[in-house]
């Protein structure tokens, strides 16, 4: 009896894999990521998605390993008890809970998350606010204004594939292309816009928007050249008037001199004529 019990216990410690427990890993979008699992398996090891247990992503046995497109697993690591699964390019379609099984028994569960994208937009008043949507399968768009007086994390739109539903004050401004666009950006639109995956309860993108406010100093600086131009034009006008007055005065002066000279010459001629007449009358 004791010998059978001891043999059963030895079989458990020899052949049963060690369960690593649940965990999660966050990957950068379109970057490779490795799902770790430290469990020695002497039988057939498989990696599957929890919600698709019949779809085998990678599989190993004592002789070899094989994996599907976009997935890699090392046979050497499998033999060492480290059957890690590498995803060559993580994206939103690869998110989810992955299960590692040894002879169809769970040994590891790892959830893959995608790192939240953070973007910054700086626009002028009146320009549209564009928010990148990495996917449109039921996502919420929420707004936290820079002005702390206004409510935070306010849901402004919900996108479900090609359908869009927005609050009344955003309904006329929002449109859906490859991005969610809010027209006529205003200073009050400055803040953080959060795009959340409703189904998986994940934050996909945070877009920080700064709408530039017109600066009074800039307006004054823009007004200085106009004032200078006006002053220059006025100065040129004054100079033109002075030149005109001087030219007219000079012309009048020349004309008067000419007329005076003509009068003197005429007077002299008249005087000579009188003298000649008087001389003749004496003779």
TrEMBL record:
Q: Which InterPro entries match?
A: Ig-like_dom_sf (IPR036179), Ig-like_fold (IPR013783), Ig_sub (IPR003599)
Q: Origin, by domain of life?
A: Eukaryota
Query: What parts of the sequence cross the membrane?
Result: 224-252
Q: Which UniProt keywords apply?
A: Membrane, Signal, Transmembrane, Transmembrane helix
- Signal peptide feature range: 1-21
Domain named Immunoglobulin is located at 22-115
Record-given protein name = Immunoglobulin domain-containing protein
């Amino acid at each position: 009896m004791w010998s059978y019990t001891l043999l059963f216990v030895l079989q458990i410690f020899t052949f049963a894999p060690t369960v690593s427990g649940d965990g999660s890993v966050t990957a950068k979008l379109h970057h490779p990521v490795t799902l770790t699992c430290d469990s020695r398996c002497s039988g057939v090891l498989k990696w599957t998605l929890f919600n698709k247990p019949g779809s085998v992503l990678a599989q190993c046995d004592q002789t070899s390993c094989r994996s599907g497109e976009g997935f890699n697993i090392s046979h050497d690591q499998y033999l060492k008890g480290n059957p890690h699964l590498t995803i060559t390019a993580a994206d939103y379609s690869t998110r989810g809970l992955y299960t590692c099984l040894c002879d169809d028994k769970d040994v590891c569960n790892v959830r893959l998350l995608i790192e939240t994208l953070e973007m910054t937009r700086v626009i002028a008043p009146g320009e549209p606010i564009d928010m990148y949507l990495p996917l449109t399968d039921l996502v919420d768009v929420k707004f936290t204004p820079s002005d702390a007086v206004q409510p935070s994390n306010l849901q402004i739109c919900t996108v479900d594939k090609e359908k869009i539903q927005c609050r009344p004050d955003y309904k006329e401004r929002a449109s859906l292309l490859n991005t969610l666009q809010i027209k006529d950006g205003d200073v009050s639109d400055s803040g953080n816009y959060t795009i959340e995956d409703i189904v998986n309860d994940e934050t996909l993108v945070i877009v920080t928007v700064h709408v530039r406010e017109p600066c009074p100093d800039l307006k004054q600086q823009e007004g200085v050249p106009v004032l200078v131009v006006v002053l220059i034009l006025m100065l040129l006008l004054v100079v033109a008037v002075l030149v005109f007055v001087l030219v007219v005065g000079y012309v009048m002066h020349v004309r008067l001199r000419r007329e005076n000279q003509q009068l003197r010459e005429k007077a002299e001629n008249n005087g000579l004529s009188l003298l000649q007449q008087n001389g003749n009358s004496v003779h």
